[in-house]
């Protein structure tokens, strides 16, 4: 199946799920999810796989065990590509009633990765490279996000260069497109591909300087 766009019916499905996030609604409309959401996402990822790698498609069910919000279903469909053996630096895509979202970088770093990230940010060679790339992405319309400390991290000074980057515990760039005509056409593939290519330098920096965690996987 070749990618032909994200059908409007998929966005309508998520509008309904936002209004009625229940098993009754899900059961009655699951065929719409399969046809108008999951199938187009899989087709998109197949088109991108030769360049970026195999994606993990997230389950539509929420993990509510430790959440105050007990609604059972996610109101978006997301997928992520993490190059094998690189550790940090991934590509993400998401479709929902709000439109299309693309993102790249790292969303959660373990403590050993955060330590390596901060050493690289403080480095006189690697730090300016990241700073320049972050500024380039921001100027191109990307939002620079990620969990960060309010205070100066231990071992650093408020006078340190790139102190705002040093406060980050994770770092990713994100951009959104609200529903528009091209979203329902093959042009959406070009948007995602071009956006992911634009994130290649950020992901390479993270892979080279942060890498994979050496800690035991979380349960």
Could you walk me through the main structural features you see in this protein, from its secondary elements to its overall organization?
This protein is α+β, with helices and mostly antiparallel strands and 219 residues long. The chain has a single domain (8-209), classed as Yope Regulator, Chain: A (2-Layer Sandwich). Helix content is 43%, strand content 15%. It is built from seven helices and six strands; from the N terminus they run H-H-E-E-E-E-H-H-E-H-E-H-H. It has helices at residues 8-19, 23-52, 111-122, 126-139, 163-166, 187-198, 200-209, and strands at 56-57, 76-81, 90-96, 99-106, 143-145, 171-177. A six-stranded antiparallel beta sheet has the order 1-2-3-4-6-5. Helix 1 (8-19) packs across helix 2 (23-52). The radius of gyration is 19 Å and the shape is globular. The chain starts with 7 loop residues before the first helix and ends in a 10-residue tail after the last helix.
Topology of this protein?
Blueprint: H1 8-19, H2 23-52, E1 56-57, E2 76-81, E3 90-96, E4 99-106, H3 111-122, H4 126-139, E5 143-145, H5 163-166, E6 171-177, H6 187-198, H7 200-209
Antiparallel strand pairs: 1-2, 2-3, 3-4, 4-6, 5-6
Helix pairs in contact: 1-2, 4-7
Secondary-structure element pattern, one letter each: HHEEEEHHEHEHH
- CATH level-two architecture: 2-Layer Sandwich
What's the CATH topology label? Answer: Yope Regulator, Chain: A
- Principal-axis shape: globular
Oligomeric nature of the chains: single chain
Indicate the mean pLDDT: 94
Portion in helices: 40-55%
The number of distinct helices, counting runs of at least 4 residues, comes to 7
Largest sheet strand order: 1-2-3-4-6-5
């Amino acid at each position: 199946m070749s990618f032909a766009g994200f059908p409007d019916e998929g966005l309508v499905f998520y509008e309904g799920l936002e209004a009625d996030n229940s098993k009754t609604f899900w059961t009655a409309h699951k065929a719409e999810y399969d046809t108008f959401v999951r199938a187009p996402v899989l087709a998109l990822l197949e088109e991108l796989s030769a360049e970026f790698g195999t994606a993990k498609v997230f389950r539509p069910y929420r993990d509510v065990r430790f959440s105050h919000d007990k609604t059972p279903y996610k109101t978006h469909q997301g997928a992520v590509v993490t190059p094998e053996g690189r550790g940090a630096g991934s590509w993400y895509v998401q479709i929902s009633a709000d439109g299309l979202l693309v993102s790249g970088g790292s969303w959660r770093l373990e403590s050993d990765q955060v330590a390596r990230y901060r050493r690289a940010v403080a480095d006189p060679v690697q730090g300016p490279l990241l700073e320049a790339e972050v500024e380039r992405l921001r100027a191109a319309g990307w939002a620079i996000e990620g969990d960060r400390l309010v205070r100066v991290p231990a071992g650093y000074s408020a006078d340190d260069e790139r102190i705002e980057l040093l406060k980050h515990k994770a770092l990713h760039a994100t951009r959104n497109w609200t529903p528009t005509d091209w979203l329902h056409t093959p042009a959406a593939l070009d948007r995602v591909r071009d956006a992911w290519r634009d994130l290649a330098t950020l992901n390479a920096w993270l892979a080279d300087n942060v890498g994979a965690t050496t800690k035991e996987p979380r349960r």
